[in-house]
Design a protein that fits this description.
single chain, mainly beta, 14-stranded antiparallel β-barrel, globular, disordered N terminus
Length: 266
């Protein structure tokens, strides 16, 4: 019982430290936060979402909604954690984003990934590209670096966004992803995406100060739930994932939008 209490206290301490640090920087907000480098963090908002902070799995072809944020992920039974920072700025025509992630697995493996992306957008169309540097090392051992590229596009037809992306490292093959996002109004959204290994389906329900998101993966079933709260341009959210290789995971997100009015994506 004492070990459980100490574990919970440790997580509460980490959470408090994050909140205090972000408050010192100017505070943040919930949805569309950096989704993380860890493989289990790709379920939440859909990598082909037409708007939102960038991440390891996300498309560069997005419409600008200036903001910045930080997220932290950890697993319940494995010493795997991921710290992620993301920012973007731009206007109706251009979007520039940056993403940095630090991944730690036990005492055996470390990874630092950084990515810069650019998108050119019109009323119904966005096209973007990203360049990333992935640095991996074993503490006290080998170090190696790789280069990664993304190319993507998004087309909006009424309330529907059709998107596709190609990504890959220079020493590996290219991985495709296609998807559709439906955004009916400011209170509901849904998406379906496929990377030709898995199908991801998700829904988002919004109220004035709260948001509930759910995402599902098929086959090799996995599910993620996220609860978000926001006031004005500031907010915070907590995510919980189940059935990812039979191990549960958690995520904290804090984000701040830089404009009083968020960009409408429908």
């Amino acid at each position: 019982m004492s070990s459980v209490f100490l574990f919970a206290l440790k997580r509460l301490y980490v959470f408090s430290a994050v909140v205090v640090m972000l408050a010192a920087l100017g505070c943040f907000e919930p949805c569309y936060a950096a989704e993380g480098h860890a493989s289990f963090a790709s379920l939440l908002a859909g990598g082909l979402s037409p708007v939102g902070l960038g991440g390891y799995y996300s498309t560069p072809a997005r419409f600008a909604d200036p903001s910045y944020g930080l997220s932290y992920y950890w697993m319940d039974e494995v010493e795997e954690t991921s710290w992620n920072m993301s920012l973007e700025f731009g206007n109706h025509d251009h979007r520039v984003g940056a993403f940095v992630a630090y991944l730690s697995m036990d005492s055996l493996y470390r990874n630092l990934y950084s990515e810069l992306s650019y998108a050119r957008s019109w009323n119904r169309f966005a096209i973007g590209a990203s360049y990333g540097v992935d640095m991996e090392w074993i503490p006290g051992g080998d170090f190696w670096a790789r280069h990664r590229f993304k190319g993507a596009l998004d087309y909006r037809w009424r309330e529907i966004h059709l998107a596709g992306m190609l990504s890959g490292y220079t020493d590996e093959g290219v991985s495709p992803m296609v998807g559709v996002h439906w955004i009916s109004d400011e209170s509901i959204a849904a998406f379906a995406e496929c990377d030709f290994d898995y199908l991801y389906i998700g829904t988002v329900f919004r109220w004035k100060f709260a948001e509930i998101s759910s995402s599902y993966r098929f086959p090799d079933f996995a599910v993620a739930l996220q609860l978000s709260f926001e006031i004005s341009r500031y907010g915070i959210s907590f995510a919980r994932g189940f059935k990812h290789n039979s191990i549960a995971w958690n995520g904290l997100h804090v984000t701040r939008w830089l404009k009083d009015e968020r960009r409408k994506i429908n």
